[in-house]
Each structure stands twice: as structure tokens, then as C-alpha cells.
Amino acid sequence: MTTQIPIELLNDAFNVFRDASRKLEQQYSLLENRIEELNAELAEKNRAIERTRRLAAMGEMAARIAHEIRNPLGSMAIFATLLERELADEPDKAKLAEHINKGIKTLDNLLSNMLLFAGSPEAKLKPVELNDIVDDAILLAGDRGKAGVEIRASYRGRKRVMADPNLLRQLFLNLIINALDAVEEDGRIGISVDTETEEGGVVIKVSDNGRGIPREEIDRIFDPFFSTKERGTGLGLAIVSAVVDAHMGRLDVQSEPGKGTTFTLGIPAGREYLS
Ligand SMILES: Nc1ncnc2c1ncn2[C@@H]1O[C@H](COP(=O)(O)OP(=O)(O)O)[C@@H](O)[C@H]1O
Ligand SMILES: [Mg+2]
């Protein structure tokens, strides 16, 4: 004897089955779409990784080239200086040698910033004479074509501190060059170094009475490659910030458009405290 399954029951079962398979189909196509999306994301990520790899390789190459350029540049600087002295009696010609020297200084500063940027700087502390460092930086900065600008340095307290002389020189150099770029022909730049601070550290201020920094730009000036200059690299202040970090210091800027700018840096005293 065969049992008869009521037709309604079969119908119901069939409907349930149809609904379930429709739902499965929908979920399957959703999953398919998601897989496509994930594949596209993966391909984009792979491209980004490849790009980053290439940039890193280019960075390494740039650093190597910068090193290679440095040596001949050093010789050129020496020869141009000798030439300048040799031509002391012929000012017109001496001026040409001076131009060569200025170009060399600009290139050298660019290379220093690039090299510091490529390998995050580490401070190797040793006793330094702050006034010597500042004098070097002023000399290296030159006048950037603004011979009338007055640069005045003042000191309070000890001049000898523990710091990394090369990093500190580059820091002052970048701040002075920026100040020179910001002022008019008869501008004023002040550098003050104070070691009579409560914490026993060094407080450095570099101020100018130049064009100032617009409010909407001030948050970006320390970003690498941010520059408002036609031929700027945007590396100067990124290096300043990295050097301050390497000394575990702090950095602050105050600026009033049309009036001037002051950069204030605090660098803690090294473990050894010098007088
Ligand atoms: N003393 C200053 N006065 C006015 N603007 C400044 C001063 N220092 C820096 N800036 C602004 O910050 C930007 C970034 O400076 P920096 O990192 O040294 O790069 P760069 O000098 O190559 O432009 C400059 O382009 C300029 O707009
Ligand atoms: Mg600069």
C-alpha cells in the first residue's frame, strides 16, 4: 500500500525549497560582488606597495648620489675660495668666484637636508660652543642677495652645552635662511640663545621682521615638502623639527603676517652639564 502525500504539503515544501534557493542565489551573487571588490582592493594595495618600494629605492639612490656629489663639491668650494682670494685685486672677477661659492653653499645645504631627511637623524651629543655653531651657520647662510639685512646674535648664560654640533648647525642654518628669505632688503634677524633656564636646558629663539606666515599655512610649515617658494624644497623646517626631536626638545612658532616670525626651540641639557 502506498501512502499518498497530500498535494498541498508537496506544494508547501516546494515553495519553501524555492524560497531557500532564491535566497541562496541572492547571497551567492552578493558574495561574488564582495569577492570582486576585495580583489580590486588587493590589486590597488599591491600597486601601492610596489610604488612605496620604488620610492624607497629612489630615496636610497638619492642619498647615495647626494653623498657622491658632496666630495667634489667640497673641492670646488676650496678652489673657488682660493680663486676669490687670488682675484682680490680684480673685484669684478672676484665677484664671479663669489657667485660660484654661493651656488656651492646652496647645493651643499640642499644635500645636507636631503641626507638628514633620508635617514632620520640621531643626536650624537658632545660639548659644543653655541656661539661657534651660530657663527658658522650665519657664515654658511650668506646673505641670500640681501646685503642690507642685519643678523644679531645674543647669549645669556653658558655657551658650552651638550648637543650634536652638526645637527644644531643645520638647524640654525635652515632657520636663518628662511628668515633671510622672509625679510626685505633692510630686514632684521635676531638669534638669542639662553641657557639660564629653570630646567637647565637651552632656549633658542630665531626671529625676523619679515612677511610673517598666514594663519592658514602655519599648521603645514613643518610638513616635509611644504613650500610657498618658487624654488623651495620644503625640507628646511622638517629638518628643524627632526633635529629638535632628536634632542628630545620642543618647538614653537609665533607669527604675525606683515610683522614677523619667531621660532622658539627648547633643547634639554645633556646628561653632562657643562659650564
Ligand atoms: N621666517 C619665516 N617667515 C615666513 N615664512 C616662513 C618662515 N620660515 C618658514 N616659512 C614658511 O614655511 C615654508 C616651509 O619652510 P621650509 O621647510 O624651510 O621650506 P622652504 O624654505 O624650502 O620653502 C616656507 O616656504 C615659508 O612659506
Ligand atoms: Mg627653508
Topology:
Elements lengths: L6 H80 L4 H28 L7 E4 H12 L8 E7 L3 E4 L1 H18 L5 E7 L7 E7 L27 H11 L3 E7 L3 E8 L8
Parallel strand pairs: 2-4
Antiparallel strand pairs: 1-3, 4-5, 5-7, 6-7
Adenosine-5'-diphosphate binds next to helix 4 and helix 5.
How would you describe the overall organization of this protein?
- The chain contains five helices and seven strands; from the N terminus they run H-H-E-H-E-E-H-E-E-H-E-E.
- The chain has helices at 7-86, 91-118, 130-141, 165-182, 236-246, and strands spanning 126-129, 150-156, 160-163, 188-194, 202-208, 250-256, 260-267.
- The model has no long low-confidence stretch (mean pLDDT 91).
- It is of the alpha+beta class and 275 residues long.
- The chain folds into two domains: 1-119, Helix Hairpins; 126-267, Heat Shock Protein 90 (2-Layer Sandwich).
- Helix 3 crosses helix 4.
- It has a five-stranded mixed sheet, covered by helices on one side. It has a two-stranded antiparallel ribbon with strand order 1-3.
- A hairpin with a 3-residue loop joins strand 6 and strand 7 (260-267).
- It binds adenosine-5'-diphosphate (ADP) and magnesium ion.
- Magnesium ion binds next to helix 4.
